[in-house]
Design brief:
four-stranded antiparallel β-sheet, alpha+beta, 258 residues, 26% strand, globular
Length: 258
């Protein structure tokens, strides 16, 4: 990742709206297909077909040799879960992470959804993780500091008895999937408060919250990260643009301003 933060021009922001709206639309369609008995490979094939039909390309497929359109992470899987013939079961939670490329510009978002009826504990984890993202988006405003985002996520997660994954972070996005700056979901004193957020910055903010401890390990497939203690994990992500008029959530279907 280049360390230079690239500010986007207004015409670039318009292109980013298109790619990110398509990601949000695809995730909404996928969420409606999640039910017991469905395989994550079926969901992956649907997502790829959906993007191609819209004239877009999957952002993840081929990135660092990743072989799929989606990352599908179940229960204790934190991120980068590989789609497979594994069938979803009642009570699972499933994180769907995906990106799209439209006219050379990237969109990126993630949601965690219930599979049928889930436990109250799992419901609470999903709710709090969504709230962590909401707090982060509210903190990502013109004139704030990058560390304000991580502080918002960490504070809300830990007040609710959860932990924040440290080894995976959010990122800038634009003509590349991963651009500067990296966006920790926690306060890292070694980084200071980070750069001032200013108009033209486009950020993919993605809290990953564990019901147990923060540590993760990567499975032998070299992609799937799981909680070290086997606890549940949830993941939500929005791509947002810092503008003169407020913070625009590009992956919200109605693109509201925070």
């Amino acid at each position: 990742m280049n360390d230079q933060i690239v500010l986007k021009a207004p015409w670039e922001l318009q292109l980013l709206r298109r790619s990110n709206h398509l990601v949000a639309e695809t995730l909404q369609a996928l969420a409606g297909r999640v039910k017991p008995g469905v395989t994550t490979l079926e969901l992956d094939r649907f997502a790829e077909s959906y993007l191609l039909a819209q004239g877009a390309k999957p952002a993840f497929k081929g990135y660092r040799d990743y072989p799929f359109t989606l990352c599908t992470s179940i229960n204790e899987q934190v991120v980068h879960g590989l789609p497979s013939t594994r069938r979803l079961e009642e009570g699972d939670i499933l994180s769907l992470d995906m990106g799209a490329v439209v006219d050379g510009y990237y969109g990126d978002a993630a949601i965690t959804v219930p599979v049928g009826r889930i436990s109250p504990e799992a419901e609470r984890l999903l709710r709090v993780t969504r709230e962590c993202l909401d707090h982060a988006v509210a903190a990502a405003r013109n004139g704030a500091r990058l560390a304000d985002i991580g502080s918002a996520v960490q504070g809300h997660a830990e007040r609710n008895g959860y932990s924040v994954v440290r080894v995976f972070v959010g990122h800038g996005i634009g003509k590349e999937l991963h651009e500067a700056p990296q966006i920790p979901n926690f306060v890292d004193p070694s980084r200071g408060r980070g750069p001032v957020l200013k108009p033209g910055m486009v950020l993919a903010i993605e809290p990953m919250i564990n019901a147990g401890g923060p540590d993760v390990r990567v499975l032998p497939d070299k992609w799937t990260a799981v909680t070290s203690d086997g606890s549940l994990s949830a993941h939500f992500e929005h791509t947002v643009a810092i503008t003169e008029n407020g913070t625009e959530v590009l992956t919200a279907l109605e693109a509201p301003r925070a």
